[in-house]
């Protein structure tokens, strides 16, 4: 599975690592992904997702069902 948040779609960002002499080398800035078990109230079970930390904070505010609907994800497959 790719390093991508399953709810928000966040993934790696291309950037430069700049040295003291200002030489630029390419690098990837990875998203801060965490494997998290979340209680799905409507399905009455646990769902294991790979989420970014920003998505975890938003999940506590909006709820799993609302975020999955926005992302177009069927939670029955997780």
Question: Would you write up a description of this structure?
Answer:
The longest helix has 10 residues, at 53-62. The model has no long low-confidence stretch (mean pLDDT 95). The chain has helices spanning 53-62, 64-71; strands at 13-18, 24-29, 33-40, 45-52. It is of the alpha+beta class and 78 residues long. 23% of the residues lie in helices and 36% in strands. It is elongated. A two-stranded antiparallel sheet has the order 1-2. It has a two-stranded antiparallel sheet with strand order 3-4.
Write a concise keyword list for the protein shown above:
2 helices, 78 residues, 23% helix, two-stranded antiparallel ribbon, single chain, alpha+beta
* Count of beta strands: 4
**Runs with pLDDT <50, length 5+?**
none
pLDDT averaged residue by residue = 95
Listing every helix as H and every strand as E from the N terminus to the C terminus, the arrangement reads EEEEHH
Distance between the termini: 13 Å
Number of helices: 2
Major β-sheet profile: 2 strands, antiparallel
Side by side, the strands of the main sheet go 1-2
> What is the radius of gyration?
16 Å
Overall form: elongated
Proportion of residues in β-strands: 35-45%
Q: Return the structural class.
A: alpha+beta
Q: Residue share in helices?
A: 10-25%
What's the topology here?
Elements: E1 13-18, E2 24-29, E3 33-40, E4 45-52, H1 53-62, H2 64-71
Task: Provide a short characterization of the protein structure.
The chain has 78 residues and is an alpha+beta fold.
């Amino acid at each position: 599975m790719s390093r991508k948040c399953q709810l928000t779609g966040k993934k790696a960002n291309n950037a430069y690592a700049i040295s003291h002499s200002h030489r630029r080398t390419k690098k990837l800035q990875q998203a801060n992904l965490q494997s998290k078990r979340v209680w799905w109230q409507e399905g009455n079970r646990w769902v294991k997702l790979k989420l970014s930390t920003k998505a975890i904070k938003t999940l506590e505010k909006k709820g799993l069902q609302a975020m999955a609907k926005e992302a177009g994800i069927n939670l029955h497959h997780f």
